[in-house]
Amino acid sequence: MDLIPHEEIRPAQHFNFAPMIDFLFLMLALFATLAISRATLFDTEVTLATHNEAKEPLVLHAENHPVHISIHDDGSYKWLTEFGEYAMPTVSMVQEELARQYQVGVLPKEKEKTQVLLHIDKQAPWDAVMQILLSVEELGFHAHPLYTQSN
After folding, report:
1. What tens digit of pLDDT does each residue of 23-42 get?
2. 65-148: CATH topology
3. Would the pTM count as exceeding 0.85?
């Protein structure tokens, strides 16, 4: 009589595939997650520019004309120029000013050359942001959102 049965001493005749299959499922899940997140990050039509804290000027093409509009944390709008800031209480006032400057000839006749840069405070309400985005697009201009931190 043996202390250890012969069946337990003999080497196993099969290979355990369970850890390998678990590893393959984990790799599949990882690559599927990467593919989906890459598609959602890079295949969207909205591009956001970030405003750096070093106060470096935003690089614009020479043929483009920038229009700066700020949206504050309380939802109010301001038209920003080299000479000052002009409060615009409503979206319709911003639309009227854009249309007026376009008709007078301050803005280029090709609307694609006008860049409406929206300086959006991170605490600004989304309805104010969406209203200005839709109103600018309604006039035929392209809006480019910039996010800034309120002081």
Report:
1. 999 999 999 888 887 766 66
2. Nucleotidyltransferase; domain 5 (3.30.420)
3. no
